[in-house]
Amino acid sequence: MNIQEMATAVQYRIPVKVVILNNGALGLVRVAGALFPGEVLPDVPAQIPDFVRLAEAYGAKGFRATRHAEVPDVLRKGFAAEGPVLIDVVVDPGEMSTRWSPRGLR
């Protein structure tokens, strides 16, 4: 939810590797809805950008896997690349982004 850190990584040549599990939604809002089923959550339309192009716009490298079979190769290339890298792994839209319990994220 905060892509601006990519600019800092590029500016200071920090070789951070960011992996996004992209379900095309605001995952934490969906998880909160599942955790608190009686609560009324806003209907947050997800206007998800092209993360690879966004990384490249900041001067970082971007990679994407759209099929399960591509994931190992894309991860290998992304982690081998120099400098800041963003890896966009497209997952099923129904996939939950994280497990969340009353004790916190897991």
Describe the structure.
The chain has 106 residues and is α/β, with parallel strands linked by helices. It contains 4 helices and 5 strands; from the N terminus they run H-E-H-H-E-H-E-E-E. It has helices at 5-11, 27-35, 51-58, 71-80, and strands at 17-22, 61-65, 85-90, 100-101, 104-105. The strands form 2 sheets. Strands 1-3-2 form a 3-stranded parallel beta sheet, with helices on both faces. Strands 4-5 form a two-stranded antiparallel ribbon.
Q: How far apart, in Å, are the first and last alpha carbons? A: 18 Å
- Helical stretch tally: 4
Let me know the average pLDDT: 83
| Poorly predicted ranges | none
Query: Quaternary arrangement of the chains shown?
Result: single chain
Structural class, from helix and strand content?
A: alpha/beta
Q: Main sheet: which strands, in order across?
A: 1-3-2
What would you call the shape?
globular
Order of helices and strands: HEHHEHEEE
Radius of gyration in whole Å, from Cα? 15 Å
Number of strands: 5
Helix share bin: 25-40%
Please state roughly what percent of the residues sit in beta strands, choosing from under 5%, 5-15%, 15-25%, 25-35%, 35-45% or over 45%.
15-25%
Largest β sheet strand count, sense and barrel closure:
3 strands, parallel
Structural topology:
Layout: H1 5-11, E1 17-22, H2 27-35, H3 51-58, E2 61-65, H4 71-80, E3 85-90, E4 100-101, E5 104-105
Parallel strand pairs: 1-3, 2-3
Antiparallel strand pairs: 4-5
Please give a handful of descriptors for the protein shown.
106 residues, alpha/beta, three-stranded parallel beta sheet, two-stranded antiparallel ribbon, 4 helices, 5 strands, 32% helix, globular
